[in-house]
Design a protein that fits this description.
elongated; 8 helices; 4-stranded antiparallel β-sheet; alpha/beta; Arc Repressor Mutant, subunit A; about 230 residues; 5-stranded parallel β-sheet; binds calcium ion
Length: about 230
């Protein structure tokens, strides 16, 4: 497993890198934001990125945003700034998890394993192609949403949210179910994050009623009415 470690502080990066190598990870370290962006796009492509927020050139937020525009590689943010974490995990950045310095090495390895397992599990969905109301098609195999062949580019969380609802169009998913399955069972952040993602998803699909709000409960996808035959 290839780990891209993005950290400008040698006193943190050196022991962390050594520790990860002892756990049989292959570690590539970058100490700048721009270096991280190009390493993320290079070969071998990392299986996971550990990303420090405070970097000397462009900061970790910008790094995360740039990587996310082309890749859904798991990202764990390493931060000393716990208070801004909602932004990191939130809409525009889409990191998968975060750790606040100082943290224990065992905990980091546990998080790496959890995040990669979660992402890996999502690569093997039950139904590869799911047609939706309004001519939308969710392709779980390529993780793309299309409408009449045109791709609608979604963030990873937006896609996961849609794909979850698409497992049973018309069925209501509670907010708790969605947060647990799309974020993870350790999500203790504000549930407003979910509303922000739903709003953004609606805007991107350009069909605000595709995702319906079930007031006080959660969300569901609009299901087409069964076509009634009137000619027989
Ligand atoms: Ca730093």
């Amino acid at each position: 497993m290839h780990v891209l470690l993005v950290e400008d502080d040698d006193a943190i990066a050196a022991p962390l890198g050594k520790g990860l190598e002892r756990q049989n990870f292959t570690v590539h370290r970058e100490s700048t934001g721009l270096g991280a962006v190009s390493a993320a796009a290079g070969t071998p492509s990392p299986n996971i990125i550990l990303l420090d927020l405070g970097l000397p050139d462009i900061d970790g937020y910008e790094v995360c945003r740039r990587i996310r525009s082309t890749s859904s590689v798991p990202i764990i943010v390493i931060t000393a700034r716990g208070e801004e974490i909602d932004r990191v995990l939130g809409l525009e950045l889409g990191a998968d998890d975060y750790m606040v310095k100082p943290f224990g090495f065992r905990e980091l390895v546990a998080r790496i394993n959890a995040v990669t397992r979660r992402v890996g599990a999502k690569d093997e969905p039950e139904e590869p192609i799911v047609p939706l109301s309004g001519g939308f098609v969710v392709d779980n195999r390529t993780r793309r949403l299309t409408r009449e062949g045109t791709e609608i580019v979604l963030t990873r969380k937006e896609f996961d949210l849609l794909a979850l609802l698409a497992t049973d169009p018309g069925a209501t998913f509670t907010r708790e179910e969605i947060l647990e399955q799309v974020w993870d069972s350790h999500w203790y952040g504000p549930t407003k994050t979910l509303d922000v993602h739903v709003a953004s998803l609606r805007k991107k699909v350009g069909d605000p009623d595709l995702v319906e709000t079930v007031r006080g409960v959660g969300f569901r996808l609009r299901a087409d009415e069964p076509v009634l035959r009137t000619d027989s």
